[in-house]
Amino acid sequence: MAKIIAVTNQKGGVGKTTTCSSLCGCLSAMNNRVLAIDLDPQGNLSFSLGAETENCYTIYNVFHGNTTLYDTVQHAACCDIVPANIMLSGCELELTNVGREYILREQLNSVAENYDFIIIDTPPALSILTINAYTAAHELIIPMVPEILSLQGISQLKETIFAVKKYYNKALEIRGILLNKYNPRLILTKEVEDLANLIAEQLDTDVFEQKISSSVIIAEAPAHAKTVIEYAPRSKAAKEYIDLIYEILRMEKPVRTEKKLGRGRPRKHPLPEVLELPDMSPESSE
To answer: What is the distance between the alpha carbons of residues 168 and 158, in angstroms, rounded to a whole number?
Structure first.
C-alpha cells in the first residue's frame, strides 16, 4: 500500500510544486513506484513533469465522476502523474454533494496498491481540493520561505489541519516544515527559523534539519520538463533534496566519500620556471 504525502501551504510562491517534483524524482531514483497528483488549477506540476493537460482526462473529470483516477494516469519520464488544468478552479462551486471531502481518498484506494508513494501538490488556498488532499493523505509536508508572510500562512493553516484531523482523517500526521530559499547569512532567515520552530511545536512536528538553498538549477529544471535530480544530478540542489528524502523517510543518510576536485582552470599568470641552483653544500666544494 502506498504512502500518501501532501505538500501544502496556503501561501503561494513557497516552493510546493518544486518540492513535489523533486520528491518524485528522488523517490523514483531510489527505485520506488511513484504517482504524482496535481491538485493545483494552475497545472504547474503537470507542466514540470511534462504531462499533457489539454484534450485528455484530468483530475477535474475524476471529481465530477466522468472517469476514474486510473484512466487519468499519464506516464512521465520519472513517475506517473494525474494532471490538472484551469478547469479545476471551478470545483469549489460545482461540488455540492454529500461526502465531497472523500472523493480523492476513495479514488486513491483503487490505485494505491500499484505504487510505493503518492505525492499530492495542493493549491495555494484552503479549498475543497485542499481538504480532499488532507483527507486522503497520511502525512503533510509544509514548505515555506524565510519570510514573515510565509510564516503567517502556516499559522492560518493550523486550524484547517486540526479540523480535518478531527472530522475526516484522524491518522493525519504533519511530517515537518521545510525551509526553501534558505540563506543562513541573512538575519531575517534566523529570526523566521526560530519562529517556525515555535509554530512547529504547536503543530506537534519539527522543522526539517535539511534546508533547500536558493539555486538557479531549481528554476531551470521545469523548463526542460525534468526534476532537479534528472536535470542536474550532481548539483547542490539535487544533493539537498536527496538528503531531505532520507530525513522524510527516517533513514540514515549515506556517507559520501567522493573528493572535491579542482576546476582545472589555467592560471591567469603562470608560475615562473624553477631555476636549477648550484649545489652550495660543503661536500660539493671539496
So the answer is: 15
176 forms beta bridges with 141
d(CA 179, CA 151): 10
pLDDT of 59-86, one tens digit each? 999 999 889 999 999 999 899 999 999 9
C-alpha cell at 223: 523548463
Residue 230 phi/psi, 5-degree rounding, is: -85, -40
Strands 139-144 and 173-179: parallel
Q: Which three cell numbers stand for residue 78?
A: 520519472
Q: Where would I find the beta strands (DSSP E) of 145-235?
A: 173-179
Please name the amino acid found at residue 107: Q
Tens-digit pLDDT profile for residues 168-199: 999 999 999 999 999 888 888 888 889 889 98
| CA–CA distances in Å: residue 232 to residues 11, 29, 30, 51 | 28, 13, 16, 20
- Residue 210, classed as helix, strand or coil, is coil
pLDDT tens-digit profile of 97-111? 888 999 999 999 999
